[in-house]
């Protein structure tokens, strides 16, 4: 018996669905509200529901899967070529339905509630760090206007500011000095909030077996491990380690015509936050590790430091995918079996 495929275009309040009835061959393109959609799918025979991987898509994927349907998520870039005429909810639903049935189409793995929670904590931490950096830079600039310079570095600069408060107070107008004190206390509050989020991420890292196995890879710390496991979702959704590296934008951009292929810089596609964590971890291995592998030493001899860092980040991502997809533990001296010719 054929499985009905539904193309579902979601938004905050309006939900458009396109499908073809198996028995009659009739086209259907209906609009629902949230409750009507849940009730409709609950009464329908189990089928395949395709959604665009946008806001709330992972929540809907879990909700629809609980009703017995199979859910697939598609990247918006793969749907756009199938939008006919003007862009409306109805045409978007039909485009999703059409894209989901293309041979070789790649899908986004739905995330669990726990994985989404961890990614939310990472986003909150990232915003707090950005806010703290802005506050510290403004504090430096305001002090510099009155002839006060601080040491380079956030921790060293703030420590020097606190140690020399009496001397700085003599150089500053009372009104401004009072305001700067409030700003310093706000920075301390941001530090406490960041540490609290990091403790919550650390608890999940210790509890999640996948995070512990990934964290054993050199260059992957607690933050990178939790972000990597939560972002990947189902590791088997990627056919190979290179596909994961391409998903993270860590592979060269390819352009070619007439049989000639040119390689450029990395594509920088996908999650920029996770790519940044991996590259920073790779730099830590290249500059601070006392036990760099022979592969790292060879790359450093042949390529510039930045290229070597990206190459190592690519290797770390591939290793993480292999560890997760094959349910293994990291082994520094592991050598994969090459297929026989």
Automatic annotation (TrEMBL):
InterPro entries: Transp_IS110-like_N (IPR002525), Transpos_IS110 (IPR047650), Transposase_20 (IPR003346). This is Transposase. The keyword Coiled coil applies. Residues 211-288 form the Transposase IS116/IS110/IS902 C-terminal domain. Residues 7-145 form the Transposase IS110-like N-terminal domain. Keywords: Coiled coil. It comes from the Bacteria. It holds the Pfam family DEDD_Tnp_IS110. One of its GO terms (molecular function) is transposase activity. Residues 180-207 form a coiled coil. One of its GO terms (biological process) is DNA transposition.
